[in-house]
Amino acid sequence: MTIWKATACAHPNIAFIKYWGNTDDQLRLPVSGSISMNLDGLLTRTTVEFRDDQASDTALLGGKQLDAGAALDRITRHLDYARQLAGTTMRASVNSDSNFPTGAGIASSASAFAALSLAAAAALKLQLSEPQLSAYARLGSGSASRSVPGGFVEWYPAQTHEASFAETFAPVDYWELTDIVAIVSKAHKSTGSTEGHSIAATSPLQSARVATAPERLARCKQAILNRDFETFADVVELDSNVMHSVMMTGNPSLFYWQSTTLALMEAVRDLRRQGIAVCYTIDAGPNIHCICAPGAASKVAEYVAQFPGVLEFKQAGAGRAAYLEQ
Ligand code: PMV
């Protein structure tokens, strides 16, 4: 019996300049570039075992066996790409665990597909460069491309599979930002981001978002490089608001915010007016990412912990690249 096996770990990431909408839904080529930071306290660990005694792929996610269906098909399609490169038809068992709630706006698909890609490539002994691995992860979930490199990362929009990958532009210890993730719901979101990307273009605001995204990206990148929190906070909140405006005005419209989401957004702006260096950003879910400048995290954590409607919070600094467990 032949078994090829590897285990990889990857952090999810939080986008400061968001990805919403594709020019190619199959290849997940984004309409605009995005910027993110990996989140070090949060982790997905995935083992992939290719075996010649197995008739189909299986996946154990968080200890639960996935039934046949769309989620398992997505994993199989993702593994097919690596199998094709390696010239094998061996099926695989996948075993994956995350230490944070999945499917609720903490980019669990990002760490999941980054870890899956790295583990599959290593198990099959593919020699992929970091850009090639990032582009491969992108096929499973766009934001997964950003969980492959470490630290502060930019993902390039491009017309081809090979050219649309993410790359580090500032190392993990460049700026000590902290993300306090306020969890207000652990429920799986009703409309996933794959579907969300495909309806983004139905919003009359999407063309304006796309036209102005490069300027926001440049401003955000420069603010990070300058460690300029004031400029950073303005552009990060603006970009999140612009994306949610597109979500709300598409057909069908997507409202991810709950009342606690809105209340905490307002409270974060208040804290900033009081001189605490924090800003918010929100993905495709109701949870709020409170991004804190160095020195602000403990005050913000204390504040978030007692905020009505917040179930719990997670705290993370900038995280390293996806890595193999030896
Ligand atoms: O990678 P996806 O398809 O789960 O899309 C992620 C979309 C957002 O989280 C809302 C924004 C982003 O850039 O991460």
Q: Could you tell me which ligands this complex binds, including any ions or cofactors?
A: (3R)-3-hydroxy-3-methyl-5-(phosphonooxy)pentanoic acid
Mean pLDDT: 95
Side by side, the strands of the main sheet go: 8-7-9-6-1-16
Rg estimate, integer Å? 19 Å
Structural class computed from helices and strand pairing: alpha+beta
Order of helices and strands: EEEEEEEEHEHHEEEHHHHEEHEE
Identify the overall geometry: globular
CATH topology of the largest domain: Ribosomal Protein S5, domain 2
State the major sheet: 6 strands, mixed
**The number of domains:** 2
Parts with pLDDT < 50 across at least 5 consecutive residues: none
Strand content: 15-25%
Number of helices: 8
**Gap between N and C termini, in Å?**
22 Å
CATH domain class of the largest domain: Alpha Beta
How many beta-strand segments?
16
CATH architecture of the largest domain: 2-Layer Sandwich
Provide structural commentary.
By secondary structure, the chain is of the alpha+beta class. The protein folds into 2 domains: 3-174, 2-Layer Sandwich (Ribosomal Protein S5, domain 2), CATH 3.30.230.10; 178-316, 2-Layer Sandwich (Alpha-Beta Plaits), CATH 3.30.70. Helices cover 36% and strands 24% of the residues. It is built from 8 helices and 16 strands. A hairpin with a 2-residue loop joins strand 7 and strand 8 (64-65). Helix 2 crosses helix 3 (130-140) and helix 5 runs antiparallel to helix 6 (229-248). It is globular, with a radius of gyration of 19 Å. The structure holds (3R)-3-hydroxy-3-methyl-5-(phosphonooxy)pentanoic acid.
